[in-house]
Design goal:
The complex is a heterodimer. By secondary structure, chain A is of the alpha/beta class. Chain A is 23% helix and 23% strand. Chain A contains five helices and twelve strands. In chain A, the strands form three sheets. Chain A has a six-stranded parallel sheet, sandwiched between helices. Chain A has a four-stranded mixed sheet with strand order 8-5-6-9, with helices on both faces. The longest helix of chain A is centred in the first third of the chain and has 13 residues. Chain A is globular and about 70 Å long. Chain B folds into two domains: 340 residues, NagB/RpiA/CoA transferase-like (Rossmann fold), CATH 3.40.50; 54 residues, no CATH class. Helices cover 44% and strands 10% of the residues of chain B. Chain B is built from 24 helices and twelve strands. Chain B has a six-stranded parallel sheet with strand order 1-10-7-4-2-3, sandwiched between helices. In chain B, helix 4 packs across helix 13 and helix 17 packs across helix 19. Chain B is elongated and about 95 Å long. In chain B, 53% of the residues are buried. Classes of the chains: A alpha/beta, B alpha/beta. At the A-B interface, helix 1, helix 4, helix 5, strand 9 and strand 10 of A face helix 3, helix 4, helix 5, strand 1 and helix 9 of B. Strand 9 of chain A pairs antiparallel with strand 9 of chain B, so a sheet runs across the interface.
Chain lengths: 222, 536
């Protein structure tokens, strides 16, 4: 008997369940009470939802900036990365956001079919990406690897991450975000809540370990 | 008992990393450096990840002597309790989330065969390979063979309870493969050749000064002027592991959740070491207990709210990674999922005890437990300590006598509790740990019925005495002799065996001068009677 059949047989025996008949396809769901909030009181993209998001991000020691439109984003990105010698960007990023970068800053492109190596990324000072959705209650930004957000490695290895979030992408609760993401569950996701951190020493939180030690969030009005 | 310097145990006879390659300059020189030193107290020598050291009562007695350990634990657990209470308090529908989490887990257990098959189907459909392991040895064999097939002799690891439980690092070391733990706390434990003492923060028993000392002695590339400021210690770990992350070919992880209806795996973490392991290497091997499956993708909306607030006391942990099989051009291009039984089906077979499999490894129950806070994790003799460990470890090792074996140290674990119920209050999936503890105690007592025990003999003697009024009266008067033993303090602190079982941990008050029966007989009969306590 293979390990697979053996383990499954043991599970069935443990449950006192009969041996399986013909394949029934998907398992049928049991009853689960879902009395929790499936959406928040705050309208997605509302100033109130954005205010909560900002409060949480600041609490995580992320840096929050506000931009009125694409031109404003370019200026902000230029200011934030004025000292960077190189910036990696996913191939699908809005070019207009990069207009404020100085001549001394090299822009490195990355795509699934033209990836930079981990070492190349390690020599890059910063990364600029968009986002899929942001959760106000928890201060979370979700990336799903689409062309404006890039491969997972590009937002991981460089030490500074500038993430541009449109205010209409801000929802209040986790369930609202999960249901939006459920349209493409197969996409590789990274949920980011502040810069990398650890609580492993005396359970006190310290920001900045292996991931980007600095997280800038640029909130741009829709 | 073999110890290294700092009073740390040499783990299971096999070091997890080769002396000359791993953590350069640290491990190689330290093995014989100071075994005589016992500066940081007593850690039992581990023999197996789910059963090591002395039985709980003996291990606890030793741990209680360690004042440094108690200070470290009291500080850490009170910090995390406060944080958890604050972030749980701001969620208006927390109880509804707990109800949903509990119901989803109950549903998972009832439909486990179908859900596992569904998960397997979806992982394979997205380019992953699924393996099944009956026990720890089989899981370790599968992983070692996969690593060897890639032609590498080192791997990076994300903190994983499943691979702690199987003793994977030691098994890989025996095959000449070095496994580098990359979680900060796991790194501390690994560098110190220590054992984990907490599910979430395995090095919770170490304070910053001790961690600094461990880094300086064993990390090799630790800056000589390293201070004990946590931020500096974290930076030292970052620098130490950076090269490893960038060059690793194979990574090994656990999983917090495996979603049946999409084949999506989830790892919840803080530091970014998880992302490094899950993203940069070419090959990823994930070892997941079969109970970690959840039915649907949207079920994550429940657990990703419950877990972070319960474990680190944060609204959300810094990083959560979700991946489904292989994504061409992004992340590992080879993905293996190892589904592990290792005693879980034995737990599942018990209708009361199976709720222990609902555990999402948040460790909130450890942080609130008055017993854990005082004795620490090592006294439980298992990688699963604390209240959840007290119900999970004996059941996982049931087949080898962990629940009923008279001399098995694990059989003492259900007694490692005051039954105060704090663990149940904080459990995000509402595991009724106190009730299961009581049930397991009853099983242990039942298993001992019919064999001569001190308890059985005492009960027989009591039955003989109490079934006859004259004998009972005499016994009551004889007990008055205890006053002689108690002396002027009115307390008896030491008695010979078997009564020492009581006086070892508590005083026995001296018996009253007059028994109740004597008082009743001798009371003045004309004393005015009162009704309802009111005097006329």
């Amino acid at each position: 008997m293979s390990a697979r059949d053996d383990v499954l047989a043991r599970v069935r025996a443990a449950l006192g369940a009969p041996a399986p008949g013909p394949a029934t396809g998907r398992a049928t769901a049991g009853t689960v009470p879902r009395a929790y909030r499936e959406r928040g009181d705050l309208t997605p993209g509302s100033p109130e939802a954005v205010e909560v998001l900002v409060d949480r991000l600041v609490d995580y020691r992320a840096h929050v900036h506000h931009a009125a439109g694409p031109a404003d984003v370019a200026t902000l990105v230029g200011d934030l990365l004025a000292d960077a010698t190189s910036v990696v960007v996913p191939a699908g990023l809005d070019e207009a956001w990069l207009g404020g970068l100085g001549d001394a800053t090299a822009v490195v492109r990355d795509a699934r079919d033209d990836p930079r190596t981990p070492d190349e990324l390690d020599r890059t000072d910063a990364v600029v990406t968009a986002a899929r959705v942001a959760i106000a209650d928890t201060g979370t930004i979700v990336l799903d690897g689409e062309p404006d957000q890039g491969r997972r490695a590009v937002t991981l290895v460089p030490d500074v991450h500038v993430c541009v979030v449109r205010t209409d992408q801000v929802v209040q609760t986790v369930p609202e975000a999960v249901r939006l993401l459920a349209a493409h569950p197969e996409r590789p996701q990274t949920w980011i809540s502040g810069p990398s951190a650890t609580s492993d020493i005396e359970l006190s939180r310290v920001e900045g370990v292996h991931g980007p030690r600095t997280l800038h969030v640029v909130l741009v009005g829709a | 008992m073999t110890r290294t310097f700092l009073g740390l145990p040499v783990r299971r006879g096999a070091r997890t990393l080769p002396d000359d390659v791993a953590h350069p300059g640290g491990h190689g020189t330290s093995a014989s450096a100071g075994r005589a030193s016992d500066a940081f107290g007593d850690v039992p020598h581990p023999d197996a990840p789910l059963r090591w050291g002395d039985a709980f009562p003996d291990a606890a007695r030793v741990a209680l002597q360690n004042t440094q350990l108690r200070r470290n634990l009291a500080h850490a657990t009170s910090t995390i309790r406060t944080k958890r209470a604050a972030v749980v308090g701001e969620v208006p529908d927390w109880e509804a989330l707990r109800d949903a989490g509990s119901a989803i887990k109950t549903d998972v257990m009832a439909r486990l065969p179908e859900l596992l098959e569904e998960l397997e189907r979806n992982v394979v459909a997205r380019g992953g390979v699924v393996h099944w392991a009956r026990d720890a040895d089989e899981a370790n064999r599968i992983v070692a063979d996969l690593v060897k097939a890639k032609g590498v002799d080192e791997v990076v690891k994300v903190k994983s309870m499943a691979t702690q439980e199987t003793g994977l690092n030691e098994a890989l070391a025996a095959e000449g493969i070095a496994a580098y733990e990359t979680d900060l706390a796991e790194l501390i434990v690994q560098l110190a050749d220590d054992m984990p003492s907490h599910i979430l923060v395995p090095a919770i028993h170490r304070n910053r000064a001790e961690i600094r000392e461990i880094f300086l002695a064993r990390m090799g590339d630790a800056p000589p002027d390293l201070s004990d400021v946590p931020r500096e210690l974290a930076m030292a770990a970052r620098a130490h592991l950076r090269r490893k992350f960038l060059s690793a070919k194979v990574a090994i992880s656990g999983a917090n959740f495996g979603v049946a209806d999409t084949g999506t795996l989830t790892v919840v973490e803080s530091e970014g070491n998880g992302r490094m392991c899950l993203t940069l290497p070419e090959t990823l091997i994930t070892v997941m207990g079969i109970e970690k499956v959840v039915p649907t993708y949207t079920d994550l909306e429940v657990f990703l709210q419950l877990l972070p607030r319960s474990s680190t006391g944060e609204r959300m942990n810094p990083y959560t990674s979700l991946w489904t099989g292989v994504t061409p051009g992004d992340g590992p291009q080879e993905f293996h999922l190892v589904l592990l039984d290792n005693g879980r089906t034995d737990v599942l077979a018990d209708e009361v005890g199976r709720a222990a499999l609902h555990c999402i490894r948040c460790s909130a129950c450890l942080n609130v437990c008055p017993v854990y806070e005082r004795v620490g994790g090592h006294a439980y003799g298992s990688v699963y300590p604390g209240p959840i460990g007290a119900i999970l470890t004996p059941q996982l090792t049931k087949a080898s006598g962990g629940l009923s074996g008279h001399d098995d140290p694990n059989a003492s674990l259900p007694y490692a509790s005051t039954l105060c119920g704090a663990c149940y209050e904080v459990c995000p999936v509402k595991i009724d740990i106190p009730s299961i503890l009581v049930e397991l105690r009853a099983r242990e007592v039942d298993a001992d019925r019919g064999r001569p025990t001190g308890w059985g003999a005492a009960m027989k003697a009591a039955s003989f005495v109490m079934s006859d009024a004259r004998r009972f009266g005499l016994a009551g008067r004889a007990a008055g002799l205890g006053r002689v033993v108690a002396g002027s303090s009115g307390r008896i602190s030491t008695l010979p065996p078997p009564a020492s079982g009581w006086t070892r941990s508590r005083d026995l008050p001296a018996p009253a001068q007059q028994t109740f029966r004597d008082w009743w007989r001798d009371r003045p009969v004309d004393e005015p009677r009162t009704e309802g306590g009111e005097r006329p």
